Every structure is written in structure tokens, then in C-alpha cells.
Amino acid sequence: MTAIAVTIAGSDSGGGAGIQADLKTFSALGIYGASVVTALTAQNTQGVSAIYDVPPDFITAQIDAVFSDLDVGAVKIGMLSRVEAIGAVAAGLGRWGQTNVVLDPVMVATSGDRLLAPDAIEVLKRELFPRVLVITPNLAEAAALLGAPLARSEDEMRAQAEQLLALGPPAVLIKGGHGGGPESVDFLVSATATARLTAERVATNNTHGTGCTLSAAIAAGLARGQRLAEAVSDAKAYVTEAIRAADELTIGRGHGPVHHFHAWW
After folding, report:
1. Candidate list 24, 76, 125, 175, residue with the active-site label
2. Closest CA to 168 of 131, 113, 124, 208
3. Residue 204 to residue 197: CA distance in whole angstroms
4. CATH code of the domain in which 197 resides
5. What DSSP designation does 202 have?
6. Phi, psi of 202 (to 5 degrees)
7. Set 7, 25, 41, 210: catalytic member
8. Which of 18, 73, 176, 211 is catalytic?
9. Is 209 considered catalytic here?
10. Is 211 an active-site residue?
11. Does residue 222 fall inside a structural domain?
């Protein structure tokens, strides 16, 4: 049986994040990738210049086309910029019985450009958090979702993860990649366990698409039949190496992408 994962996310015309990063990640990890495009961005390594939101009825049409035909093992959800898109995706997950879902609550691009409308935050929490297996916010996203200050310590990270857990998802992976110190520390928190995951922090400006890549790599592991903790651990190892190899690429004049195919090129 061919392992299949679906990414429901926005397109990055520069190729470093979003749908493009997800499909590269699936391919690098031996998973067949399909996609549902929720938004188009005019984007490169220096920023986002325009966003076109895909109409919700067309998001629905893509979901139904993919899930009616493919035996999907896992789903990754990324950019959902509008309330209507969130509603279409939530309804689609319910209609097709998809629960093996990784939600990356994409709010701001690496360049600093906002990708989620402020009025959509509450809808995202209400409609999608209870429908997914895990959410994967970075420090800024976790703070924004909670209306709280940025976590400054590991204790504060764990506390915010537990607050997010109370909003409905079975598990929360809070990511410390935007923090400081020699290690990048993440916490995977569920109702029954907390795991501290560490990796050496890599000094590079080429981190575009890191969050997309991590959540897609988790979905790839789930599609292969891994348990969540194993999928998260393997995904963090993959992303760490993709960041470590990022400077081998020369892409654009801003924040370049991570090297998805570091093991192959």
C-alpha cells in the first residue's frame, strides 16, 4: 500500500514554504503527496506582496476530489487566511472522517507578513482544534492564540502548551526554534505525557518554510503508521538536517529555504 498524505495550505510562488515545501517534504520522506490549495501568494524570499484567497466552494471541490479517490493516511493543514476557508476545511474533515491531522496555525510568514486575518483566530480555535490530532505553533503563534506574552522560558512554554491543550486538540507541539540559546527546544504535550525535544541550534538566515516542513514531516510519519511521538521526533531530526544544509543552496536575496533534499542532492 502506497502511503499518502495531503497538504491543505497556501501556495508559495517562491517555492520555499506552503504547499511547495509540504510536497517536497513528502517526496523526500517517501510519501505520495496530494494537495488542496487554500490561497495563492505572490511571494519570494524577501516577503509576500499579494494574497489571493481561493473561494471556499473551490476548496470544498478540491477536498472532495482528493478524499473521494485517494486512501489518505494523514493530513497537514497550513495557511487558512479567512473564516470561510476554515469553515470549508473543517466541514471537509468531518465529511471524510479525517482525524489523523496535523494543524500548523500559520499566522505570520518568516518575512513578518501576516497570513491570517485577525477575525479568523477564534474560528480556527473553535472549528479546527477539536478536529485534529496535534497543533504545532511556534512561540509567537502560541502567544497570539492565547492572547498572552511570548514565552521566555521552558516553564512558560510548557504552561502555554497546556493552555492550548485545554482548547481541544489531543496534543500540542510548541516549538522553540525562534527562541535563544545553543539548543532549539520543543515540547510535545498531551493529556498523559510531556516530551522535551532538543536539537543543536543552527546559525543560518535560510529558515524559510521551517514550520511548514516540520508539520508536513510529522504528517509523513503518521501516513507511514508511526505513533505521534515517533513521528514528531523523526520530523524534528529531518528539519534540523534540512536547516543545517540550507546554506548549500543559493536561493533568492532574502530568507532562503531549508534544504528539503539534503539527503539526495
Report:
1. 175
2. 131
3. 20
4. 3.40.1190.20
5. P
6. -100, 130
7. 210
8. 211
9. yes
10. yes
11. yes
Q: Could you read off the pLDDT of 198-246 as tens digits, one per residue?
A: 999 999 999 999 999 999 999 999 999 999 999 999 999 999 999 999 9
User: How far apart, in whole angstroms, are the C-alpha atoms of residue 105 and residue 70?
Assistant: 25
Domain count, the chain: 1
Question: What residue type is assigned to position 92 of the chain?
Answer: G
Task: Report yes or no on 255 lying in a domain.
Answer: no
212 is known as an active-site residue: yes
- Strand residues in 74-218 grouped as ranges (E): 74-77, 101-103, 134-135, 171-174, 183-190, 194-200
**Residue 66 in grid coordinates:** 482528493
253 is a domain residue: no
Residue 99 annotated among the catalytic residues of the structure: no
Which residue among 78, 212, 221, 240 is the active-site one? 212
Identify which of 15, 3, 2, 13 has the alpha carbon closest to the alpha carbon of residue 213. 15
Q: Is 207 a catalytic residue?
A: yes
Q: Judge whether 259 lies within some domain.
A: no
Of the residues 73, 177, 209, 221, only one is catalytic, namely 209
Tens-digit pLDDT profile for residues 47-66: 999 999 999 999 999 999 99
User: 8: domain range?
Assistant: 4-248
**Cα 2 → chain centroid:** 23
What is the model's pTM? 0.96
